[in-house]
Amino acid sequence: MSTSVQTNYSNSSSSSSSTTSKTTSNDLGKDAFMKMLIAQLQNQDPLNPMDGTEFAVQLAQFSSLEQLQNLNTTMSSLPDYLGAFSNAQVANLIGNEATAEGNVIAVSGSSTKINYKLPSDIASGTISIYNSNGLLVDTLSVGAQKSGQQSFTWNSNGQDTGNYTYEISAKDKSGTSVAVDSYITGTVTGVSYKDNLSYLVINGQEVAFTDVIKINKKTN
User: pLDDT tens digits for the chain (220 residues)?
Assistant: First the structure.
């Protein structure tokens, strides 16, 4: 009797081993894991049953696998929720004044402020201003300035209303050229979303939200 039981267990064990080999050749899901565990219980040797500690370990592995799969499902939808939340927050910036990287200025009166940043002190500089057709409309001379945020007020009296662009060239006291970071400042009039990125419309120009350096609450 003992020999018969041992023989049946041997055949079942071989079958279970074959099943396990086939199953583990691919990713082992929780359904396959449970089927394998049930088959293991059904085909165990009654004279030498599975150790309780080993069984508990396998159940713990199954529980961990299920929790990880549920976590993966939740995490996969997290970027969509965060993206929607971020877009809603950016939309609230419409109507506020923003400063961002760029070289567009909006002319609507007799004076227009030009903002830029100097990485080091300069001895002199030149600001060239172009209209929407790319034609040079004015050239401004800048004297010695310290490093950091700077601004220059352009006398735009007589210029047509609209957007203009500008370029700044500067040199330090030794005559070496200094790279200048240009900025645009204006009211946020719109928001757009492209390729999972948010853009603010400032002075008619789309500016990536990541390029914005300052937001001021506009007061009436």
Answer: 433 334 343 444 444 444 444 444 445 555 666 676 667 666 665 555 555 566 566 656 666 666 666 656 655 655 554 555 456 677 788 888 888 888 989 898 899 999 999 999 999 999 999 998 999 999 999 999 999 989 999 999 999 999 999 999 999 999 999 999 999 888 899 888 887 778 888 888 888 888 888 888 866 5
Cβ–Cβ < 8 Å for 61, 28: no
210 plus 179 within the same structural domain: yes
**What's the predicted TM-score (pTM) here?**
0.54
Residue 76, number of CB atoms within 10 A of its CB: 9
**Would you say 87 and 193 are in contact if contact means Cβ atoms under 8 Å apart?**
yes
Could you say which of 51, 75, 91 is where a domain stops? 91
